[in-house]
Amino acid sequence: MEPHVPRTARIALNRPIRRLFDYLLPDHMTLQRGQRVTVPFGRQSATGLVVETDAQPPEGITLKPVRSAAEAWPALPPETFRLLSWASDYYQHPLGECLFTALPPALRRGRPAVEKVEPYWQACGDPALLPGNAKRQKELLAWLKRQPGGAGSKQIVRAGFTQSQIRSLQEKELIRETTPPSTDGATEETRNRIPVLSPAQQEAADQLPSPDDGFTTTLLFGITGSGKTELYLHYLKTHLDDNHQALVLVPEINLTPQTVARFQYYFGSRIAVWHSALKDSERLSTWLRIRNGEPVILIGTRSAVLLPFTNLKTIVVDEEHDSSYKQGEGFRYSGRDTAIYRAHLNNCPVILGSATPSMESYHNALTGKYTLVRLEERAGNAKLPTIKLLDIRSRPLEGGLSRPAISAIEKCLNAGQQALVYVNRRGFAPIMMCFDCGHMVECPRCDTRLTYHRRDRAMRCHHCDFQTAATDHCPKCDSEAFKPVGQGTERSEDVLAAQFPDIPVVRVDRDSTQRKGSIQGILDTVNSGSPCILVGTQMLAKGHDFPNVTLVVVVNADGGLFSVDFRAPEQLIQTLLQVSGRAGRGEKTGEVLVQTCHSDHPLLRSLAVGYYLPVADQLLAERETGQLPPYRAMAILRAESDVMSSSLKLLDDMKSKASDCGIESWGPLPALIARRADRHRAQLIMVSNNRVRLNRQLALLCQDLDLMRLPADVKWAIDVDPLETG
Ligand SMILES: Nc1ncnc2c1ncn2[C@@H]1O[C@H](COP(=O)(O)OP(=O)(O)OP(=O)(O)O)[C@@H](O)[C@H]1O
Ligand SMILES: [Zn+2]
After folding, report:
1. Where is the Helicase ATP-binding domain (predicted)?
2. Which of 209, 276, 312, 688 sits between 20 and 30 A of 707, alpha carbons compared?
């Protein structure tokens, strides 16, 4: 008789460690890669994901058996599993944490992969049968009769009725439980809607690849207001079959409910959304729809690219240049680049759209790796706005605004139009300073100054969670000459409200949009079309379509001009062109006023011409001279600890290891904000002409780092294709 060979499985756990765990497979159990299991871990149990099933059992160790499989099917189907393994290798992040990112929170915690189905109700009786005093029950019955196909309990409660009213009607058999209307596919009504393209849009549409062509990457360079959304809709409408899935990645979904509404208009209930503000139950429900292969068109932020699609036929990445596609901590993946790899795995097209493409994508388009499709006309009758630089060096300013800027706003409002004022910081002022002793209020835990937030009478650090009460006097010498310096959105809001007391001034920044639904109120004011002033941060630059905004004022353009970060000029020009692009999208031509102290700076002068590609060519030439990305691959090794010397020491050691592996490195240097939340941060920049080689070398480096016995306070992280290098 053959000796009994134990069968084992190699399992990934949701832990930040670069290793997998071996378990015995009980005789009756068969598992597939990507399946969710419960395993014993220490004294407890943990949820794991199967990575390998026929692993060689390690010798001399007694393995514990897998407890149970959560489902009979793999939570991560083969293609999604391959995508995440690739991302784990490419971004040097532990496989377990990468795999778990693709699960909704409920499944990470080991909950069953089933939705709690809420009861769905339909009216079936006559309100006249109710006693006269059952007023609310009568109203509920009448309301329910008006809902085609009935309504779910939650919807009924949201409409102002109670669970006990539902129960009473059920007992009287005036309502009955029913199945909710099917959400598969689009309804007849939406199926026949196809957007009508302008000739310029049609020309661009004709150049887009067909999904039958397999994997292709297209860069759609479409100027602001050219109707890229219309083009995506048309593309999906003409190329997607009824049973196909599609993914549309967007930077920040909750800012643009209009976009979602436009997709729903054409695709009805096929549209699903994915973003960080969803409830756990909503995430599970959408995740299941996608995993079950329903023909969903998902509009989602970064992490949507990791979901377990099984029939994905097209990917669109809107505003592909946006930095929010890169995760800044933990699993530092780029949603855009992962989307391209996913399209490659899937053999389907991916379309990257932007009015201000990233240097990476533009470079790939120039070298022929991507197809470049240009759409350089605004939709409808709209024209691109004119951009004027306004030198403010010797002009008196009121709350940061010059006289000509205020006059322009006045003229715009008098003409019955709307103005948008862009300020690059939230809060009232970035500095509080004593004009007697020169003291500036700093964060006790970071190398930064505290921002004055006047609405909350608080001084806040924008780099850690420190805050303290604001004072009227200098905290050091008690002088009353203690004043705000510089501009924040709150200050501009105050100045404008005082200047234009009869006009609504709406502030849009992270503070003012935190409350749920607040963005909708803001949009309602703007969409009413009557004169108003919008004041806000780059949140206002992102994809909004306000047809009655004809004036954009940039309070200060100089922030990124002299930064040490090599990406700063690119990001500055992108933000300025995007915010400028909000002007004149309707019938009336727009104007942009850019206040600056450096009106002769070449970058700003080329901005004023208004065309992006010549500026991009110039920026690319500079990158080539400096041998920077996209001409070379880059990764950053970051270290932090309780004292700077430990961080630098680790990086110094790693620099020689990197050099042994053949990696060129720059530094180590303290980070731009060297101390953050009392941790001292430093970085080593690594570059290579060969991306594949750099990736292999980084893997070796990670192995070394894992084996090192580091002091407990020293932490390190690798950031591949970093966006922030300061
Ligand atoms: N073919 C068309 N006919 C009429 N109006 C159109 C057409 N295409 C687009 N529009 C309108 O033009 C405006 C701008 O379109 P959209 O918001 O899609 O532009 P965009 O290219 O995404 O701009 P941005 O990059 O600045 O966000 C919208 O109001 C849209 O409804
Ligand atoms: Zn701080």
Report:
1. 209-375
2. 688
Tell me the best of 230, 252, 549 to mutate to test the pocket of ligand 1, counting ligand atoms within 8 Å of each CB and taking the most: 230
Q: In this model, does residue 518 exceed pLDDT 80?
A: no
The secondary structure of 508-577 as a DSSP string is ESTTTT-STTHHHHHHHHHHT-SS-EEEESGGGGSS---TTEEEEEES---TTTT-SSTTHHHHHHHHHH
| Stated pTM of the model | 0.90
Q: What is the pLDDT of residue 563?
A: 81
Q: Which residues line ligand 1 (CB under 6 A)?
A: 196-198, 201, 222, 224-230, 355, 379-380, 543, 545, 581, 585
For the chain, the domain total comes to 4
Overall average pLDDT of the 337-365 stretch: 97
Please enumerate, by residue number, every residue annotated as part of a binding site for Zn(2+). 434, 437, 443, 446, 461, 464, 474, 477
Q: Whose CA is nearest to atom 6 of ligand 1?
A: 379
Cα separation values, 50 from 73, 91, 96, 330, Å: 11, 21, 10, 22
Residue to probe by mutation, ligand 1, list 201, 538, 545, most atoms within 8 Å of CB: 545
Distance 445 CA to ligand 2 centre (A): 5
Boundaries of domain holding 641: 633-720
Q: Which ligand is nearest to the CA of 441?
A: 2
Q: Which atom of ligand 1 is nearest to the CA of 355?
A: 25
Q: What is the ipTM of this complex?
A: 0.95
| pLDDT at 186 exceeding the cut of 60 | no
Residue type present at position 690 = N
Alpha helices in 377-505 (DSSP H): 403-414, 489-499
Q: Are residues 364 and 397 in the same domain?
A: no
Dist. CA 256–CA 271, nearest whole Å = 15
Q: 591-596 and 386-391 as β-strands: parallel, antiparallel, unpaired?
A: parallel
pLDDT per position as a tens digit, 91-150: 999 999 999 999 999 999 999 888 777 788 888 888 787 888 888 888 898 888 888 778
Give the CATH number for residue 401. 3.40.50.300
Going by pLDDT thresholds of 50, 70 and 90, the confidence category of residue 253 is confident
Residue type, 253: I
pLDDT at 183: 54
Res 227 pLDDT > 70 = yes
- Are residue 572 and residue 682 in the same domain, yes or no? no
Domain presence at residue 475 = no
Closest-lying ligand 1 atom to the alpha carbon of residue 196: 1
